[in-house]
Amino acid sequence: MEADNERIIGLYQRHALTWDKDRSRDLVEKAWLDKFLALLSPNASILDIGCGMGEPIARYLIGQGCVVTGVDSAPTFIDFCRTRFPHHQWLVADMRTLVLDKPFQGILAWDSFFHLNHDDQRRMFAVFRHHAAAGAALLFTSGPAHGTAIGNYQGEPLYHASLDSDAYHHHLREHGFTVVDHVIEDPACGYRTVWLAKQDNQK
């Protein structure tokens, strides 16, 4: 039987049309996105890992002048993005095996990275580093503490996992990132646990 964490790709693809309607366009993430953008130069290149259907986050970044490359494992989400934002790049890919041939000034994994199991999350820091230009900013969400949580979407189990704060600090340092800001269960952002980090200037 397929593990809950491996069902995520199929779940979002099966329910892509419903998710597109359900996903709030209220930009509760704006304060964190603005902190992220403040670390970047104008017209920065952004890698959006788990971009979904491109709204509201990619739309906001594009509106701020960023050049976005979005990656998602659900083909229908990528179709939405290509239709909505045809002048940006959108790729169907599994974030765990992502290898692109260029670095980015900003890397974003908002409400996506936390669908991976613990081991896959640990391995993702090498993926972040591989795609980070010198001085790149990294913004991602996690859980508040080590563990797993199974939610529900459209009657199917929706897997989430998290390492603890010490582990995230360790993996960030190990891959050349310094934490700029971190809030556990930020009440101003839907009680998300958010990490903002910056890559060392020398890679």
UniProtKB/TrEMBL annotation:
Molecular function via GO: methyltransferase activity
Keywords attached to this entry: Methyltransferase, Transferase
Limits of the Methyltransferase domain: 46-131
Cross-referenced InterPro entries: Methyltransf_25 (IPR041698), SAM-dependent_MTases_sf (IPR029063)
GO terms classed as biological process: methylation
Keyword Methyltransferase: yes
Pfam families: Methyltransf_25
Listed name of the protein: Class I SAM-dependent methyltransferase
Highest taxon in the source lineage: Bacteria
